[in-house]
Design brief:
Order of helices and strands: EHEHHHHEEHEEEHEEHHEEEHEEHEHEEH
Structural class: alpha/beta
Helix content: 25-40%
Bound molecules: aspartic acid, magnesium ion
Number of strands: 17
Number of helices: 13
Shape: globular
Strand content: 15-25%
């Protein structure tokens, strides 16, 4: 068995949907399971509609909904489905009725709860999979629409619900295996799940990768294919550095590190369920299905280049907490982290000295509440418009002199914080955001001037 996960751009219109059908057709013998995201930008649009409705602009929200309906019907009709009174058009209309009810409810209440937000967002994947199932059927591929909400069982932390592994695994096997045995292609929604009580949840933006990983792990699949609009995982963001190379093979640890530090290709949580079962994940371009993409494996292969990729994250804020009371005392770090924990704000990079702690955050919604709390611990200063740059490579730890190469390449870019991750497969530092392009280009030039052809293309 294999799992084929399609991201929003890989199903954004009729052409993309036809490519999907061809991709599945070519892999029929491998017993594929389709896990799909919402079409194109649908999730953002749905969330926007929900907010618009809750802010009292009911008519505007209904108009936006009508546009969304229109675009789904239009692409489906280009493929000869959802034409008149067929099952697909009926299903789309039923969903739209439900969404209109939600919009009216939101407008009346004037408040958008995370629970209703999830209910609304779930329609993106529910709509896309209805269409995909029919597209496959029309191409002569027996397919069966599944309800991911019966399989991905989560806690009730709406918007970022966490799948409960044992129950989820059991439910996936129970619902998917009989369909696969009948030689049908199950079509499964990414991103959505439900609580034990059957209330719809979503598992975090970009969560379809995670869904695919859960399905692949439960089924002990041979491989999970992540179909995207990029050629694979690249040595760095090709929009910033056009010379970026495709990485043919990368380890799970490296990929997780990259995902966390801003590489757009994969959701970090994807990694875990698949890693545990040693199921490899391959990132592929759905517009170039014959290319080999990037394979993410559990193994660490030797690579001549100590750094495999450079990731970055913009919009970083550095917070410095200084307290002379810290000198020779203990318990300060605990108090500081408790504050971030309380506001559920993740900290990326930490550096400490005898009397100060510097931390970076990339989410500033609770910033001033956090600062108020931190001031009880020491003097606080906040420094915005920073960027984190992260060089990742399994071989970093065995290669003397890499830090020298990295920091020489940066020339006169001022480095504010440096950390070499505990896993010692990354070197991470903080710089001013406006120096980011030159820093990344300089680094890429010097780290990838020569490449190991077994690992890079
Ligand atoms: N459609 C969802 C989102 O846009 C999930 C995904 O794309 O993976 O976040
Ligand atoms: Mg999406």
């Amino acid at each position: 068995m294999i799992v084929c996960k399609f991201g929003g751009t890989s199903i954004q219109d009729a052409d993309a949907l036809m490519r999907l059908a061809k991709i599945i057709e070519a892999r029929r013998d491998l017993q594929p399971v389709v896990v799909s995201s919402a079409m194109g930008n649908t999730t953002n649009k749905l969330l926007d509609i929900a907010r618009t409705a809750a802010s009292g602009r009911q008519q505007h929200a209904l108009d936006l909904l009508a546009e969304l309906q229109e675009s789904h019907l239009r692409e489906a009709q280009k493929l000869g489905i959802a034409t008149s009174e067929d099952r697909v058009s009926q299903e789309i209309h039923t969903y739209l009725d439900e969404m209109r009810d939600l919009v009216k409810g939101l407008a009346a209440l004037g408040e958008l709860t995370p629970r209703v937000s999830d209910a609304m967002a779930s329609f993106g994947e529910r709509l896309s999979t209805v269409i995909i199932t029919q597209v496959l059927e029309n191409q002569g591929i027996p397919a069966q629409l599944m309800d991911a909400r019966k399989c991905i069982i989560t806690n009730d932390n709406f918007v970022n619900a966490v799948p409960l592994s044992d129950e989820t695994e059991e439910a996936i096997l129970k619902h998917l295996l009989p369909v696969i045995r009948e030689n049908k292609v199950p079509v499964f929604q990414g991103f959505i799940g439900s609580t034990r009580d059957g209330v719809t949840t979503t598992i975090g933006r970009g969560g379809s990768d995670h869904s695919a990983s859960l399905v692949g792990a439960a089924l002990n699949a041979e491989e999970i294919l992540i179909w995207t609009d990029v050629d694979g995982i690249m040595t760095t963001d090709p929009r910033m550095v056009p010379e970026a190379r495709r990485i043919k093979e990368i380890s799970f640890n490296e990929a997780a590190e990259l995902a966390y530090f801003g590489a757009r290709v994969l959701h970090p949580a994807t990694i875990l369920p698949a890693v545990r079962k040693k199921v490899s994940v391959r990132v592929l371009n759905s517009t170039k299905p014959d290319q080999e993409g990037t394979i993410i494996t559990d193994e660490t292969r030797y690579c001549e280049n100590p750094v495999k990729a450079i990731a970055y994250k913009k919009g970083i804020t550095v917070m410095n907490v200084t307290s002379t009371r810290m000198l020779m005392a203990y318990g300060f770090l605990k108090r500081i982290f408790e504050i971030f924990d309380h506001y559920k704000v993740p900290v990326d990079v930490v550096a400490t000295s005898e009397v100060s702690v510097s931390l970076t955050v990339d989410e500033t919604s609770a910033l001033w509440d956090i600062v108020t709390e931190l001031k009880k611990v020491g003097d606080v200063n906040v420094d915005g418009s920073k960027a984190i740059v992260c060089c990742v490579g399994d071989n970093l730890r065995n290669t003397p002199g890499v830090a020298h190469t990295i920091f020489s390449a940066l020339q006169d870019v001022n480095i504010q914080m440096i950390s070499q991750g505990a896993s010692s497969i990354n070197i991470t530092f903080v710089i001013d955001e406006d120096r980011l392009p030159e820093a990344v280009r300089g680094l890429h030039d010097s780290l990838f001037r020569e490449i190991d052809p077994r690992i890079f293309e």
